[in-house]
TrEMBL record:
Gene Ontology molecular function: metalloaminopeptidase activity; peptide binding; zinc ion binding
Protein EC: 3.4.11.-
Transmembrane segments: none
Record's keyword annotation contains Protease: yes
Name under which the protein is recorded: Aminopeptidase
Family: Belongs to the peptidase M1 family.
UniProt source species: Pangasianodon hypophthalmus
Keywords of this entry: Aminopeptidase, Hydrolase, Metal-binding, Metalloprotease, Protease, Zinc
PANTHER family linked: PROTEASE M1 ZINC METALLOPROTEASE (PTHR11533), THYROTROPIN-RELEASING HORMONE-DEGRADING ECTOENZYME (PTHR11533:SF294)
Any one cellular-component term (Gene Ontology): cytoplasm
């Protein structure tokens, strides 16, 4: 903004703005507010004067001059909503979906927050290139095309879901961010955490059958705990001393951990008090700025009205001002009957990493933890009780604990922490999953899978326990635990996919998957079915299981995928259901000849659907032909064929390919200066690239190469991303040294009988 206006460009300095734009009359212009008056000059130039804005932060002031077309609709309260995009996109109806859900969302947020949308209009602008997915300028939100245009004939369900969440996120910001803005960037997590949390609440309102509130566990909670379990993590609220530090706070810790903490708080408070607290926060501070204590005060007051005297500030400061999260260990007391011992400690994937980080060395972190605890056995589970844990170790009397009674903590995974148990309790829980899994809620089944894999990875549990827990999956009919297992297995797969004994691991995983795979079969497109029906009615579990079967080498899955690709090539009619195109394309490219790669490359050039182009591009990275992959990398970086966001995805996906990890790693180092100058300023993109290319390096040689590269090349704004990368690769190498042999030993024993 400083490049366009002389302003104090800091969020606390709010002002009103009157924008006037003069441009060629063949174009149209938009800004935060509607046009107040227009005049056409004799020279053919048009002058548009826009209404004065309410008080707002400077970084939300925006305007655009374009030759786009538009579609519009109106809410029942009279707010005009328009979507601007390339004329062919508008004509094909690609913007209709986003326009439709935006109308529903404005009504949803007004009802939820009990605060009216304060502007007379909301414009959505779809642009071919943008450094971020979207930007929530007040009354004029800007989206990169991939995050707002939907072609229902070829877009997969996952593409639709991703796009929906971006729109839900940006509309939420019209209140939390635009109307009420953090005083300074150290509390940016408040607006981003809320918007990320509401991605799931708002999407659940739009499409209840999607089970988005459950998806939060795998897509937000489990994902951010991977990042936040590292010594190079940071508190979500931290002081910023330099301008360069501001970019650093726009990371997944701010977004996803912020969302997870808000979800934990909402569950502790209860829905009524939580909504009342948000309403009070928005009404008290509308058109103004806030710090986190303002939010805590609003929530504490909402609880006081219900007769509950909890200092939200006291509880939440521990979670926001300290990095990381605890692992809570629950075990039966050795001498006292019906009593449990509960302890907490800072969870780290690599405990030795503390030595290298001054902020953690000799430091003991503690949290006030809302722990929901239940007891169960084969046939039933007791009702949960809430216990607040604030000391290192505490003892509690609970219900009757028999020899076969298991304990289960963090019910439905509402808390932001991991739970560990003694080995006897783990065995009872795994036995329960094998015999009668539905006694335990679907959220906790997914949580148990994620916790077991992470606790074993960090050395808290034996390495065979994750392999034992996935044996129950053939009895699992819900998507969420399969999704949790799939994500955890993916991490392990990338750690092992270049080892000599890899087939021991892949065969073991296939054994657990195959029963469900053959039972579910493949989605079919019946004659007369539209792609739309096939896309949205395809079972997500079916897709997840097909993906696992093809990834780990099931021969039937491979034949099926190759046959679908061959049929497409011979008929030039794509009858592959959109929901599984990514799996089918990738499998075809990896197993079939060079002609298939060339066919997909040609289709990438000719396709006009944004979502289809993305799937094709990622499929091209699945080849084991390094010549073709090198050609793809160069074409992505050196031409306008590939949008900026996708250039990074191409390099990352090549790095995920075990045949080409070395290629992506070498290419990244050779092209670093060019990549850094191009993406260094873009939020997320640079750190996404650095972590994506390095996270699966796991040999001593690769670790040495990374250290050398950091010393000679990497500095400046990317320093924290490289520190994180170094910690990840060190932990990968260490896992191989400490656990690989015993891991494969157990697999050998298992395969022998």
């Amino acid at each position: 903004m400083r490049g366009k206006l002389s302003v104090f460009d800091e969020p606390v300095y709010k002002a009103t703005f009157s924008v006037t734009l003069r441009h060629d009359a063949s174009y149209q212009s938009v800004s935060n507010m509607p046009i107040e008056s227009s005049s056409l000059d004799e020279d053919g130039w048009l002058t548009n004067r826009f209404s004065r804005t309410p008080r707002m932060s400077t970084y939300y002031v925006s305007w655009a001059v374009c030759d786009f077309s538009s579609r519009e609709t109106m809410t029942h309260s009279g707010v005009m909503i328009r979507l601007f995009a390339r004329p062919d996109a508008i004509q094909s109806g690609s913007g209709d979906y986003a326009l439709h859900i935006t109308k529903s969302l404005l009504n949803f947020y007004q009802d939820y927050f009990r605060v009216t949308y304060p502007l007379p209009k909301l414009d959505l602008l779809a642009v071919p290139k943008h450094p971020y997915a979207a930007m929530e300028n007040w009354g004029l939100s800007v989206f990169v095309e991939q995050k707002i245009l939907l072609d229902p004939e070829v877009s997969s369900f996952s593409y639709q879901m991703d796009l929906t969440m971006v729109v839900v996120h940006e509309i939420c910001h019209q209140w939390l961010g635009d109307l009420v803005t953090p005083v300074w960037w150290d509390d940016v997590w408040i607006k981003e955490g809320f918007a990320h949390y509401f991605e799931y609440v708002g999407s659940d309102f739009l499409f209840p059958k999607w089970n988005m509130k459950q998806r939060f566990l795998t897509d937000v909670l489990h994902e951010v705990m991977l990042l936040d379990g590292m010594a190079t993590s940071h508190p979500i609220s931290e002081e910023l001393f330099q301008v360069a530090d501001i970019h650093r706070v726009f990371d997944w810790i701010s977004y996803k951990k912020g969302a997870a903490l808000i979800r934990m708080l909402a569950n502790v408070m209860g829905q009524t008090a939580f909504q009342r607290g948000i309403n009070d926060y928005l009404v008290t501070h509308e058109y103004g700025n806030t710090a986190r204590d303002d939010l805590w005060n609003s929530f504490s007051q909402a609880l006081q009205r219900e007769g509950k005297d909890i200092s939200i500030k006291e509880v939440m400061d521990g979670w926001t001002l300290q990095m990381g999260y605890p692992v809570v260990t629950i075990s039966k007391h050795e001498s006292l009957e019906n009593t449990v011992t509960i302890s907490q400690e800072h969870f780290l994937y690599d405990k030795d990493a503390k030595i290298h980080h001054r902020q953690l060395f000799n430091k003991s972190l503690q949290w006030q933890i809302p722990l929901n605890l239940a007891l169960g056995n084969f046939s039933h589970m007791s009702s949960e009780s809430l216990i607040w844990i604030s000391n290192k170790t505490e003892t509690y009397r609970v219900g009757r604990i028999g020899e076969e009674t298991w304990l289960l903590g963090n019910i439905n995974q509402t808390g932001y922490f991991r739970v560990n148990y003694d080995l006897h309790n783990w065995r009872l829980l795994i036995q329960q999953l094998m015999l009668n899994p539905t006694i335990i809620s679907v959220g906790n089944r997914a949580g148990l899978v994620d916790d077991v894999f992470s606790l074993a990875r960090a050395g808290y549990l034996p390495q065979n326990l994750p392999l034992q827990i996935i044996c129950y999956l053939s009895k699992e009919d819900d998507f969420l635990p399969w999704h949790a297992a799939s994500r955890a297995l993916y991490q392990l797969d990338k750690l092992l996919d270049r080892t000599e004994d890899y087939s021991l691991f892949s065969s073991y995983v296939l054994k657990q998957v195959e029963l469900k795979y053959h039972k579910l079969d493949w989605p079919r497109l019946k004659a007369g079915d539209s792609f739309k029906q096939a896309t949205y009615h395809t079972n997500e579990l079916q897709r997840e299981v097909i993906m696992l079967a093809c990834s780990f080498g099931n021969k039937h899955c491979h034949r099926q995928a190759m046959s679908l690709v061959s049929e497409w090539i011979s008929s030039n009619k794509n009858r592959i259901p959109p929901s599984i195109r990514d799996v089918v394309y990738c499998t075809g490219v990896s197993l079939m000849d060079e002609d298939v790669w060339e066919f997909m490359w040609m289709k990438f050039h000719s396709s006009t659907a944004v979502s289809e182009k993305k799937v094709l591009l990622e499929a091209l990275t699945c080849s084991d032909n390094t010549f073709l992959l090198h050609r793809l990398l160069n074409a992505s970086l050196n031409s306008d064929l590939v949008p900026d966001q996708d250039v990074i995805d191409v390099i990352i996906h090549v790095g995920r390919n075990p045949h080409a990890r070395h290629l992506a790693w070498r290419y990244f180092r050779e092209k670093w200066d060019e990549l850094n100058s191009r993406f260094g300023e873009a939020l997320f993109l640079n750190s996404k690239l650095i972590s994506g290319v390095t996270e699966f390096l796991n040999t001593q040689r690769e670790l040495d190469e990374l250290k050398d590269f950091i010393q000679t090349s990497a500095a400046g704004g990317s320093a924290s991303a490289f520190s994180r990368a170094l910690e990840v690769v060190q932990a990968n190498v260490k896992w191989h040294e400490l656990y690989r042999e015993s891991f494969f030993q157990w697999l050998r024993k298992s395969s022998d009988g």
